[in-house]
UniProtKB/TrEMBL annotation:
<dbReference type="InterPro" id="IPR014729">
    <property type="entry name" value="Rossmann-like_a/b/a_fold"/>
</dbReference>
<dbReference type="Pfam" id="PF00582">
    <property type="entry name" value="Usp"/>
</dbReference>
<dbReference type="InterPro" id="IPR006016">
    <property type="entry name" value="UspA"/>
</dbReference>
<dbReference type="InterPro" id="IPR006015">
    <property type="entry name" value="Universal_stress_UspA"/>
</dbReference>
<protein>
    <recommendedName>
        <fullName>UspA domain-containing protein</fullName>
    </recommendedName>
</protein>
<feature type="domain" description="UspA">
    <location>
        <begin position="12"/>
        <end position="158"/>
    </location>
</feature>
Length: 164
């Protein structure tokens, strides 16, 4: 990179999954940070999808788990491929071509925080699943976890409530 006097762009990591809220968060981010800037985007965009392990997807491994695992793994790979394809299409429709997309196996909370470290991200964007208090207490909120553990600014994108 000879003669590069241009400052390195800051990195923005966006967590993506197969939910509508994730798609909304990515679209909102593209509209607010990338689309207005034509080709001179302020951030380098890294999209990260965490693919659950087959074991975590089926729960405890009991009798017959060995036969089921390859099917579960194939299913998780299909979902990951769909998530990536949809995200790339969305970026493309917003004229954002320069994007890195990663699929990393593991729990979304750890995967996203590790991606922040790996890419030296200055901001992490996650969607809000809008779980109720009980479901959030049981499942644990990815956005809550990242807000407390990621070593960067964390932006949680919420869908506006529909007014009736």
């Amino acid at each position: 990179m000879a003669g590069q006097a241009v400052a390195e762009k800051q990195v923005m990591v966006v967590g993506i999954d197969d939910s509508e809220r994730s798609t909304y968060a990515l679209e909102w981010t593209l509209d607010h940070f990338f689309a207005p800037c034509a080709s001179d985007h302020p951030f380098k965009l890294v999209l990260v999808h965490s693919k659950p392990t087959p074991f975590s997807a089926i729960g405890l491994a009991g009798p017959g788990a060995a036969e089921v695992l390859p099917l579960v793994e194939a299913d998780l790979k299909k979902i990951a491929a769909r998530v990536v394809e949809k995200a790339r299409e969305l970026c493309s429709t917003k004229s954002v071509q320069d994007v890195i997309v990663e699929v990393v196996e593991g729990d979304a909370r750890n995967v996203l925080c590790e991606a922040v470290e790996k890419h030296h991200a200055s901001i992490l964007v996650v969607g809000s699943h809008g779980y109720g208090a009980i479901k959030r207490a049981v499942l644990g909120s990815v956005s809550d976890y990242c807000a407390h553990h990621a070593h960067c600014t964390v932006m949680i994108v919420k869908r506006p409530k529909i007014k009736h």
